[in-house]
Amino acid sequence: MSQKNLNVPIKTHNFLQSKLKDKLTNQIYKKFERILDLNENFVVAVSGGPDSLALAFLTKLYSINKSLKAKYFMIDHKLRLDSTKEANSVKKTLKKISINLKILTWTGTKPKTNIQSISRNKRYSLLIAQSKKFKINNILLGHHLDDLIENFFIRILRGSGLNGLISLDKKVAYDQVNFLRPLIDFNKKDLIYVTNKVFGSYVSDPSNENIKFKRVKIRKLLAEFQNEGFDKNKFFLTINNLKYANETIKFYIKENLEKNSYFFKKKNLILINKNFFQQSQEVIFRSFAEVIKIVGKKYYLSRGKKLIRVINLILNSSFDKTTLGGCIIQRVDNTIIITKEH
Questions:
Q1: Same domain, 13 and 51
Q2: pLDDT digits (tens, 9 = 90+) for 15-39
């Protein structure tokens, strides 16, 4: 493979390859290569944490070996005083392995409540915009096995249904872009190992230790569970079994959407007939959530309680009009019309 095709200095390529002399790092890369199995260019979302830096290293090596183009982006949310300094530090770190990290800044008013959720949605919208700019269809995220388990328990506390409990899929298509999570089978400790071997250090996000966030509380609780014999790999098998059950429900959701809703793409408008709401409760709930996601152009669905409230309103014969998830929902005779809120 020529240096021109690799588009990376031989010195950097040799440095990256030299890290595979370490047995565990080599095993992790081989597993990553097998799981990703991608032959298209991709965007990589970087945060600066150890899982994210490990993803940067693994994808850089993968892109060289497969002669693919990889674009790297980090979002500066401007939610903390040191965020810009930290982003520039990560940029400097990645430059050591010939990664040109582009920092995207979140401008405008910042939220005072539901900060993590709103920040995540903004992050994804910025990444989608960049992927479309460069005509790339794949965005790689750094979620790993520990994130998957934490997310499961967070959703239990929220009273989520089956789909919510297993929400971190390896591949999700949204807004004509594929979101891929090639690290979802990896333990965080292995990713920290790779990062320390390659970079020597990493930036720690102070919010990851702030117990006012539910995710941090869950993380600390899971650490105690592990001391009592909790096995993450066995729990991963449980989540996979739940996913198989979820696929059956998805079949009926797809059928409901195809038979009982009509999407006018140019107008970003969806019509729903009365049969849409004559399914099982779970199928109605998730079909309606999907409709709101499509019209509202949101990566993540609206919270369950809000969805249930609106569905109950619609089922009432006196229903006229309401809003949810950036959408206007109104009744005209026996048809429900959903349009984007401006």
A1: yes
A2: 899 999 999 999 999 999 999 999 9
| One domain, residues 213 and 251 | no
User: For the chain, how many structural domains are there in total?
Assistant: 2
Query: Which stretches within 159-269 are classed as H helix?
Result: 162-165, 188-198, 214-227, 232-260
Each residue's pLDDT tens digit, 237-294? 898 889 888 999 999 999 999 999 999 988 999 999 999 999 999 999 999 999 999 9
Range of the domain at 50: 3-230
pTM equals 0.77
For 317, other C-beta atoms within 10 Å of its C-beta total 6
By the 8 A CB rule, do 6 and 32 touch? no
Identify whether the C-beta of residue 336 lies closer than 8 Å to the C-beta of residue 314. Answer: yes
- Please give the Cα distance from 74 to 303 (Å, whole number): 27
Helix-helix angle 304-315:281-296, to 10 degrees: 110
Q: Is residue 42 part of a domain?
A: yes
